[in-house]
Specification:
Number of helices: 4
Radius of gyration: 16 Å
Order of helices and strands: HHHEEH
Helix content: 40-55%
Structural class: mainly alpha
Distance between the termini: 33 Å
Mean pLDDT: 92
Strand order of the largest sheet: 1-2
Largest sheet: 2 strands, antiparallel
Strand content: 5-15%
Length: about 90
């Protein structure tokens, strides 16, 4: 039996399938709680990272005068960040 050392490990394959399903289910924007779950992160911590500009895939803004904030994660931006655009390189 020969071992293919360059085969994709099963955990990577499963994570890419999960990413593809996330994109399929959310064509324009992915809800922040779903991204947090996908990354294994705390949603509030992810909000803080986005707000501080540490997550290049997320957008944050102040919604109203009371200081309530809103967050958006564009699907394409997140996908390209996560995959490092590897699917679009020659």
């Amino acid at each position: 039996m020969s071992l293919n050392l360059l085969s994709i490990p099963k955990p990577i394959e499963l994570k890419i399938q999960e990413l593809n399903q996330l994109v399929q289910d959310n064509h324009s924007y992915i809800p922040l709680p779903q991204i947090a779950s996908f990354l294994g992160a705390n949603a509030e911590g992810l909000r803080n990272c986005i707000e501080k500009g540490q997550c290049p895939f997320g957008l944050a803004w102040q919604k109203d005068i009371r200081g309530n904030k809103a967050f958006k994660i564009p699907t394409v931006t997140f996908y390209l960040w996560y995959t490092q655009g590897v699917g679009f390189r020659n």
